[in-house]
Amino acid sequence: MHYQLSDDDDEEKCMQGAEVKALFSVTGMTCSACAASVEKAVKHLPGIKDAVVDALNHRAQVVFCPAFVNEETIRETIEDAGFDARLISEETINERSTQVCRISIQGLSCISCSMTLEYYLSSVHGVTKALVSLSNEQIEVHFDPRLISTVDQILEAVRDVGFEGTLITYGGATRSVQLQLEGVLENENSTKIIENSLRSLPGVREVNFEPGRRKMSVTYEPDLKGPRDFIKTVESNGLKASIFSEKRGSETHREDEIKQYYRSFIWSLVFTIPVFLSSMVFMYIPSINRGMEIKVVNMVTIGAILRWILCTPVQFVIGRRFYTGAHKALRRGSANMDVLIALGTNAAYFYSVYSVLRAAFSPRFESTDFFETSAMLVSFILLGKYLEVLAKGKTCEAIEKLMDLSPERATLLTVDTEGNVSNEEEIDSRLIQKNDVVKVVPGTKVPCDGVVVWGQSHVNESMVTGESRPVGKRKGDLVIGGTMNTNGVLHVKATRVGSESALSQIVRLVESAQMAKAPVQKFADRISMFFVPLVVFLSISTWFAWFCAGKLNGYPKSWIPPPMDGFELALQFGISVMVIACPCALGLATPTAVMVSTGVGASQGVLIKGGHALETTHKVNCIVFDKTGTLTIGRPVVVATKLLKDNMSLHEFTSLVAAAEVNSEHPLGKAVVEYAKMCRENDDETGPTWPEARDFESITGHGVKAVVRNREVLVGNKSLMLNHNVVIRTCAEEIMTEIEGLAQTGILVSIDREIYGILAVSDPLKPGAREAVSILRSMKIKCIIVTGDNKGTAKAIAKEVGIDSVVAEAKPEHKAQKVKELQANGNIVAMVGDGINDSPALVAADVGVAIGAGTDIAIEAADIVLMKSNLEDVITAIDLSRKTFFRIRLNYIWALGFNVIGIPLAAGAIFPATGFRLPPWVAGGAMAASSVSVVCSSLLLKNYKRPKVLDSLQVRGKIIG
Question: Residue 499 needs a FRET pair 20 to 30 A away by CA distance; which of 493, 529, 823, 851 works?
Answer without folding.
Answer: 851
